[in-house]
Amino acid sequence: MAKFDGFRAGIGIVIAALAGSEKAAAQLPALSLDPSRLPHRGTIDERFQSYNVEMVEVTGGRFWKPYRANASPAARDAVNTGNAPAGSNPDLYEYRPPIDLSNTRLRTLAAALAPSYLRVSGTWANTTYFADSDAPPTTPPDGFRAVLSRARWKAVVDFARAVKADIVTSMATGPGTRDATGLWQSDQARRLLAYTKTVGGGIAAAEFMNEPNLAAMGGAPKGYDAAAYGRDFKAFVAFMKASAPDAIILGPGSASETAAAPSSAGFIGTRDLLAASGPGIDAFSYHHYGALSRRCSGIPGETTPEAALSEDWLARTDRTRAFYQSLRDEFAPGKPMWLTETAEGACGGNPWAATFLDTFRYLDQLGRLARAGVQVVAHNTLAASDYGLLDETTFRPRPNYWAALLWRALMGTIVLDAGAHSGMHLYAHCRRGARGGVTLLAINTSRTEVGSLRLPAASERYTLSADDVQSADVKLNSTALRLGPNDELPALAGVTSPAGTIELAPATMTFLTIPNAGNPACD
User: Fold this and answer.
1) How far is CA 270 from the centre of its chain?
2) Which residues fall within 8 angstroms of residue 173, CB to CB, at 6 or more apart?
3) What pLDDT, on the 0 to 100 scale, is given for residue 89?
4) DSSP secondary structure string, 282-299?
5) Which residues have a Cβ under 8 Å from the Cβ of 420 and sit 6 or more positions away?
6) 453-486 pLDDT per residue, tens
7) Contact 516, 460 (CB under 8 A)
């Protein structure tokens, strides 16, 4: 867990007025900052920026239908066509064949984000049967909704090895895993862990169940409650300590609660889950989505592109984190926090989740959570539905992928305190790979006003922009980011800015690296 010194003196940020020049565009107040004096705030895991591949992607099955549906019914795999969350509207889903984890482009792009955690879980994992044989069944056994074959799980292990990702997963917990009295049995989990080892892999971390506060939707037995979860979780912890003692036990993995969130039918409060399960977790995991997408909510105005740069929208990740952090402090004090699933909106995201507009949320969320000491943030998904980092049919990068690539290249694991101020979102880390160096991330969420940042030293500038905020294309320093003819990643070249005032155009995100900042926290 990152430790914070709470020290905020010496930040050197002052608000100043722009003087002596006339600007055509409206101006935000200028900020003046000395990167050499930014104090240490904490550290994050080297795999802080991670991602999900949903279990249903691995097995094949029905996942959130893209707004532009394009799957061919002829491609269906009869084993897993009926796999969908309990009680859900089947019209929300579309069949996908199993993801091709051997695809060269997919591996190249995932490897560029290394090191990372690869989480294979999701609601569908709760009721997926691992067929520990070379001849998997043609239909799921009673109590399960999908079949995971050896071949498809080996593809996960091989992919993880190739892209330098450590595997995180959760266990099957539905009716098919239980004895006649309803007690969870570890046979399925034991087989999965053993097979993983035989093919040269390992499980770095595991949750017992995906989103236990929504257990009914995840296929738990009828009447499943906090007491049943507590009993099962204790059995899971005992199993993991005996079978995979080096794995990190995560929990509870609840979804998008806040103090103000209303409960619903089938909902189990996370406080009740933690009180019933007792100690046992090594890291406190939770999920955050700022809203249901219009795909699930049926309410077009619940979240809108017009609000996507608003403080209310961007701050929702803080409100969810604060709620779960209070429970962590009460039930698992001192344990690190992992956000194991997050994206623009639940249920596959909104139409603009695949555009430059969502990149503001993506980078701002990383900055906020690193500043707050969250150790891992796993985006959902790498390449499925509208919120994927990559297009699910072509595996071509979406704007959030390019932002992820820049974060990986420039932001180190030591977090600095850039202070609190209005007018611009500003985050600071030690520069990755440059001793004493500092990287700043300045996010101008105003659509009309130019921001200004004054630095006492020269910097290398990397500005992300788009001709239209809802474009699927993104530019780095005014040059479009695209893969080369053989899927080569483009050079991420900065532009030198001399000491003094740097202008930050409306609706842009800018990384500024100061390699010779001489910040003692970064030595």
Assistant:
1) 20
2) 126, 127, 184, 208, 209, 218, 219, 220, 232
3) 78
4) SEEEEEEESSB-HHHH--
5) none
6) 999 999 999 999 999 999 999 999 999 999 999 9
7) no
Q: Tell me: the pLDDT tens digits for 358-386?
A: 999 999 999 999 999 999 999 999 999 99
What is the chain's length? 523
Transcribe 11-47 into DSSP letters.
---EEE---S---SSEEPPEEE--GGGPPEEEE--TT
Distance separating the N- and C-terminal Cα atoms of the chain:
21
245 CA to centre of own chain: 26
218-227 burial, b at 16+ Cβ within 10 Å, e below that, comes to bbbbeebebe
Nearest C-alpha neighbor of 169 from the set 271, 253, 284, 82? 253
Q: What is the pLDDT of residues 271-330, one digit of tens each?
A: 999 999 999 999 999 999 999 998 887 665 578 999 999 999 999 999 999 999 999 999
Specify the pLDDT at position 103.
98
Radius of gyration of the chain, Cα coordinates, nearest whole angstrom: 23
Entry pTM:
0.92
Give the amino acid at 462.
Y
| CA angle, residues 126, 131, 136, in degrees to nearest 5 | 125
* Cβ–Cβ < 8 Å for 233, 280: yes
Distance separating alpha carbons of residues 307 and 506, to the nearest angstrom:
15
